[in-house]
Amino acid sequence: MVDELTSRERVLATFEHESTDKVPISFTGVACRIASELLGREAYVGFGIQGWREAKALWKGEHSHQEFLERSLLDAFELAKAMDQDVVRYKYWTTAPSTRPAEKRDEYTFVYGDPKGEWRLMRYDPGTELYSTIAQYPPKQKLTYESIEKRLSEREEQLERPCPGLIRLFREERNIAEVRAVMETLGREYAIRVGGGGISIPHDSATWLAATVRRPDLVARLLDIQAEMAVRRINALARVGVKLVWGGGDFASNKGPFYSPRAFHELMLPRLQRISEACHKHGMYYLFASDGNLWPVADDLFGKSGVDGYYEIDRRAGMNLRKLRERFPDLTLIGNISSHTLSQGTRDDVIIEVLSCLKEAKRSGGIIVGCSNMIVGNTPKENFDAMTKTIREHR
């Protein structure tokens, strides 16, 4: 019998594949509607909705923006406690630029940039909780290898400067100070989800995907930039006590990766190894996330890369906990309750799936159970309640 552990101890023991007092729990994210029902008040969490909220706060002024940041942090922590999570996601993505909007068109629509020059128009949709760009000027240009090369050269020059631009430096230092404060306040008791080590080839662009075959040199330069930025952030995060670096990047569908296993081996693998080594140098764990069927590149991604953890494990794409555990005994696995099952399945479907994850976690260890992706806004309350109740009773 293992003595009762703190959430932090429970998660770190899982990464060391040691015994725990109960199965650790972590959720990638929760839609505002679901969180609000659970907390009994409007919860400042979610995804696109947070970007819109930040836009409104920035429009009102610095005091309002500070209140937004403080309430968002509090609600994220209160949500994690209410769901008995061991990993605290203290900050939800904001899709708005981190600058004050230049113009407010209506309650849901803001303009960024120069309304008489370069601008972007963003609108919030309450039905989907998304905050998206609906127009911009100049219009988005068709991507070419020439335009890619120009942009890469600009980014490489920025990285080589002895001191980054003042605005960029200010934002990064402010971000690290925020992480430090969270680690000092919550990090002794909870594992903290801190982003870093993101790396991916843009999968929404046919030009970039074609470049993996026709211009791999450009893809290599892009990934080198991302790896360098990741290493710099990891070094900074290590100084404030971060242990888990949540990175990765989507690159697959249910049918498999968007580019060939050979491209992954030659382009992605060396950069992933560099990021993993940077984490290990500081005694940190590097976690990689992607939806989809990753089996065609699994030996590189989960074996040779040095990645310590895998989250967003896509059950519907064939990523099975037991099969993963048997093939990669040292890999820590996070998730595998399907967002689709939660939102589209029956209550019994949810219970069966949750129990299967808990059973495998107890059987083989090294597993943190939770929803593999976001708990979406149209998830039926009875399904959400069935998931949380089953976890509490059987973990």
Low-pLDDT runs of 5+ residues are: none
Count the helices. How many? 14
Roughly what is the average pLDDT, rounded to an integer?
Answer: 94
Q: What is the end-to-end distance?
A: 15 Å
- What's the overall geometry? globular
Q: Work out the count of structural domains.
A: 1
The level-1 CATH class: Alpha Beta
CATH level 3 topology: TIM Barrel
- Quaternary form: single chain
- Strand coverage percent: 5-15%
Order of helices and strands: HHHHEEEEEHHEHHEEEHEHEHEHHEH
CATH architecture descriptor = Alpha-Beta Barrel
- Report the sheet with the most strands, covering strand number, pairing sense and barrel closure: 7 strands, parallel
Q: What proportion of the residues is helical, as a percent range?
A: 40-55%
The value of Rg in angstroms is: 21 Å
What can you see in these coordinates?
By secondary structure, the chain is an alpha/beta fold. It has one domain (7-46, 73-95, 142-394): TIM Barrel. It contains 14 helices and 13 strands. It has helices spanning 7-15, 32-39, 48-60, 62-82, 145-160, 166-186, 206-214, 216-238, 261-281, 298-304, 321-327, 339-344, 347-364, 381-394, and strands at 87-89, 103-106, 109-113, 119-125, 130-137, 191-198, 244-248, 252-253, 256-257, 285-289, 309-311, 332-334, 367-368.
